[in-house]
Q: What sequence folds into this?
């Protein structure tokens, strides 16, 4: 990593330190006693879609689990293997008592592109990527079935959103999630960040589509007067 990147990160921590550990450190003193987030956000590891930055979250606001392509695997019997996402879900629901789970997908997702292209098979026993993105196989199948003749870019966008729905369905396979929802203590949400347009969309079960919660900004033309036909 170039040294200027390290310097940037250190300077960023210094700003964080000044903001939260300065004269008014009441928020940190409160958080030192324990965390009480109301939401679990399952997001992508992509460096462009940091959940805290996107939502302006403060320390303690959101419990976050990030992975390639923001996928939720189906619930499986734990047999001595490691299940990071599943553990985060269980801890958030059973221990933290979060009120909602948000699956946040995004445009231009490299993990979904790998899924759609097909990850090259490997003889290595350490090929973790292909096994992981395979969680989205159902989303890929439904995308190709409905959009088999569309461009690759369109297919990826459709699959990005279908994969979110696949993860929401997989969330319902966790007994503690299903129980909390049945008791009215928990809700689950599918969100999609359009990286190109700067929009935030949410899945609407009523319409069966992703609808804007925060629409794209209206950008003024470079020369508004010329664009309107008015000469000066």
A:
């Amino acid at each position: 990593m170039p040294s200027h990147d390290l310097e940037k990160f250190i300077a960023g921590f210094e700003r964080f330190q000044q903001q939260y550990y300065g004269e008014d450190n009441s928020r940190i003193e409160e958080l030192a006693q324990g965390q009480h987030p109301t939401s679990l956000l399952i997001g992508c590891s992509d460096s462009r879609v940091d959940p805290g930055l996107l939502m302006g979250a403060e320390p303690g606001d959101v419990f976050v689990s990030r992975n390639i392509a923001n996928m939720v695997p189906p619930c499986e019997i734990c047999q001595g293997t490691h299940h990071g996402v599943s553990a985060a879900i269980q801890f958030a629901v059973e221990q933290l008592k979060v009120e909602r789970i948000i699956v946040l997908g995004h445009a231009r997702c490299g993990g979904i592109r790998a899924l759609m292209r097909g990850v090259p098979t490997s003889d290595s026993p350490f090929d973790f990527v292909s096994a992981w993105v395979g969680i989205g196989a159902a989303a890929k199948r439904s995308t190709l079935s409905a959009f088999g003749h569309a461009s690759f870019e369109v297919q990826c966008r459709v699959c990005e959103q279908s994969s979110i729905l696949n993860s929401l369905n997989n969330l319902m396979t966790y007994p503690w999630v299903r129980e909390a929802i049945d008791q009215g203590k928990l809700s689950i949400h599918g969100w999609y960040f359009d990286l190109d347009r700067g929009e935030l969309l949410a899945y609407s079960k009523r319409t069966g589509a992703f609808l804007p919660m925060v629409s794209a900004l209206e950008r003024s033309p470079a020369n508004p007067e010329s664009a309107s036909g008015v000469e000066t």
